[in-house]
Structures are given as C-alpha cells and as structure tokens.
Amino acid sequence: MNAVTENITILPMSRFNNPTLNSLKANFKSFKKSKKILMIEDDPDMAAVISKSLKQKYSCIIDIAQDPFEAMNFMTENFYDLIILDWQLPALNGAETLVQAEKGLRLEPSLPIQWDRQRVPVVIFSSSKKNECPPRRTKHFNYVGFVSKSQPLNAILDSFGHYMEDETTYRYGTA
User: Fold this and answer.
1) Domains in the chain, start-ordered, CATH in brackets?
2) CA atoms 34, 40, 41, 45: torsion sign
3) Count of CB atoms within 10 A of residue 72's CB?
4) N or C: which end of the chain has fewer CB within 10 A?
5) In angstroms, rounded to a whole number, what is the distance separating the alpha carbons of residues 86 and 49?
6) What are 18-60's pLDDT values in tens digits?
7) What is the DSSP letter of 110?
8) Whole-prediction pTM value?
C-alpha cells in the first residue's frame, strides 16, 4: 500500500441504507430548478393573472415584458426556459418581435452563453386563430405551440404546463 491508499476507510454498504439518507437522496433526485419564463404580453391584467397562476401552479420564475423592446432587453440579460409570446403587440407582431430579437442577440457581445447552445421554446399566446399566427424560423427560437386566450384559465395553465414539463423535446427542436 502506498501513502495515499493507507488512509482510505471502506464503509459497509449497510451504513448507506439509512431511511433518512434514502429520503434525502430521493428528494435530491426529484429536485428540479424553477423554470424561467419570459412572458411578452401588452395587457397588464392578462399578464398579471397568467403570471400569478403559473407561479402558483408550477413554481416558476416569470419576467413580464409589455412590449417587444422591453422583451429584447430581458433577453440580452437572461436566458429563458420558455417564452410566452402574445402575437398582437402594439409595435410589432409576434414574428416581427422574435426576428428583431434575433438580430439583437446576434449583435450583443455579452449574451448568456446558453443562447449559442440551445433554442428557446416559444409558445404563441393569442386571441387570434392559430392559422393567423404564422411563425418564422430563427436560430435562437423554436416555435413549439399555440395557446388560445379564449380558453378557460385552467386550460391555458395546463397548456403552458405541457410545454414546461418536457423541455428537452422542445428546446432542441425535435418537436
């Protein structure tokens, strides 16, 4: 034996079969970080209701941008697990918002590194019909779905929850 291996003590496995330790292991495995969401919604009442409800139901973190320019500022400082995008914004529509954000992200020298590695799933949230909201393909964003504002609140929350649960399918563009 050399000096390094002399001081190693091998503990019996029964020592690790402790109910408290097993419970801690199970809790650690089930721990998931809170999802970070950017909601781009110009109606402050709608944004407040949806944001509060999503936080309560899914324990997520939500930044709210009321216009495309505020959204672009948030995106240059943060990386998001999901973007909820109102299609009818005052200055630009949803597609134009993300195209402009895409241009801004390409020019921003101090972006969070995740922007180069992953695409952010985007769910269109609109009172328009789905066929009236044609998404454009971009490098940084992956359109994954459409949620109608005309649904009851619980249906809206369940729809958003669906996109938060299986993030790898949506983030890497395999959906």
Assistant:
1) 35-171 (3.40.50.2300)
2) positive
3) 20
4) N
5) 14
6) 665 555 555 554 455 788 999 999 999 999 999 999 999 989 9
7) T
8) 0.75
